[in-house]
């Protein structure tokens, strides 16, 4: 990928143009015992902007608020050129039961705080950070829609939520004329492929772009493992890490780039954080990395998961639902005991 050039995408039904790689800002700040100080975080941000990126994602709870505050200073001189997203729902004060949740009280408090920290009067995207079982979907959707109608929030997304809740929520929003979720964030990597069972098919059907968070599996697919650190992984994880490293050596590149390029080939967008500008520069190289069919097949073989029920059940009986097989369906059901 040439310097300063990054592909653009449309963020689902919002129509907002965003860069194909989103910069995750969870590493902005050292309050959680990792991450980067403001000087290094600024270098990461500048590296991202130099590559043509315009979409930065933070959250109200990241590094106890330091992430939003830093990002606010970074974007101050170019606010309108940036697509800024943050999140709410996860608790921020263990002493206050209403500091989290997807209810209206939590939402208002969180958004007001985020706007102040970010130094802006609107959010381009607000994500529901996780499913709140205690708040009905309609209550959350109506509260979010009020913010969109007021111009405080331009678009809404959702993360860490079951597929049935997301699909039900968007159906409710459509029927009532409220704002629908325009995008989805999921944990997805070679080590975490379970979203393939329900979440990714749902997103494809609903036309929701999907951002993969932790596509490097919290660094497990990026670091150079010692024998000791490798032994601490499960056998499946060891196999995936070794195959990823082998392919990286074949291509003369890093394991991180191979892992990120694989996620892109699955049709997902990337949300990538970095502690240093050098790390981000390496990650950006994945946007131009091409994996061969053989390399993709080896990664698939190493990381494949069972689809699980009911997908395995339906796959085994797929022929029963093909047009040419319909006349013999009764016989097939008899032979399987109807099961």
UniProtKB/TrEMBL annotation:
Keyword Transferase: no
Entry annotated with the keyword Amino-acid biosynthesis: no
One GO cellular component term: cytosol
Gene3D superfamilies per the UniProt record, alphabetical: NADP-dependent oxidoreductase domain
Domain NADP-dependent oxidoreductase: 20-302
Protein name, entry field: Aldo/keto reductase
GO molecular function, one term: oxidoreductase activity
UniProt keyword terms in alphabetical order: Oxidoreductase
Organism whose genome encodes this protein: Rhodococcus rhodochrous
Extent of the signal sequence: none
InterPro entries, A to Z: AKR, AKR_Detox_Biosynth, NAD(P)_OxRdtase_dom_sf, NADP_OxRdtase_dom
Annotated segments matching region Disordered: 89-108
Pfam families recorded: Aldo_ket_red (PF00248)
């Amino acid at each position: 990928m040439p310097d300063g050039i990054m592909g653009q995408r449309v963020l689902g039904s919002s129509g907002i143009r965003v860069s194909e790689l989103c910069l995750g800002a969870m590493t902005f700040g050292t309050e959680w015992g990792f991450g980067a100080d403001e000087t290094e975080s600024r270098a990461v941000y500048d590296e991202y902007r130099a590559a043509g990126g315009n979409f930065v994602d933070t959250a109200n709870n990241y590094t106890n608020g330091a992430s939003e505050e830093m990002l606010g200073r970074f974007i101050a001189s170019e606010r309108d050129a940036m697509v800024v997203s943050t999140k709410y729902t996860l608790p921020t004060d263990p002493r206050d039961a209403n500091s989290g949740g997807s209810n209206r009280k939590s939402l208002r408090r969180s958004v007001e705080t985020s706007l102040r920290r970010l130094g802006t009067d609107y959010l381009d995207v607000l994500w529901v950070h996780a499913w709140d079982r205690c708040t009905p979907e309609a209550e959350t959707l109506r509260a979010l829609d009020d913010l969109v109608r007021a111009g405080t929030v331009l678009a809404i997304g959702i993360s860490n939520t079951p597929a049935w809740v997301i699909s039900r929520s968007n159906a409710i929003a459509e029927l009532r004329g409220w704002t629908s979720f325009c995008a989805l964030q999921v944990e997805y990597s070679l080590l975490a492929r379970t979203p393939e069972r329900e979440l990714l098919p749902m997103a494809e059907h609903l036309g929701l772009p999907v951002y993969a968070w932790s596509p490097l599996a919290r660094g497990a697919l990026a670091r150079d493992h010692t024998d000791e650190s490798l032994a601490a992984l499960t056998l499946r994880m060891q196999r995936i890490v070794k195959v990823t490293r082998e392919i990286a050596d074949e291509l003369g590149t890093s394991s991180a780039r191979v892992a990120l390029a694989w996620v892109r080939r699955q049709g997902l967008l990337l949300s990538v954080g970095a502690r240093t500008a050098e790390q981000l520069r390496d990650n950006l190289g994945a946007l131009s990395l091409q994996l061969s069919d053989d390399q993709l097949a080896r990664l698939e073989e190493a990381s494949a998961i069972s689809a699980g029920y009911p997908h395995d059940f339906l796959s085994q009986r797929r022929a029963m639902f093909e047009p040419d097989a319909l006349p013999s369906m009764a016989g097939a059901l008899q032979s399987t005991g109807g099961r």
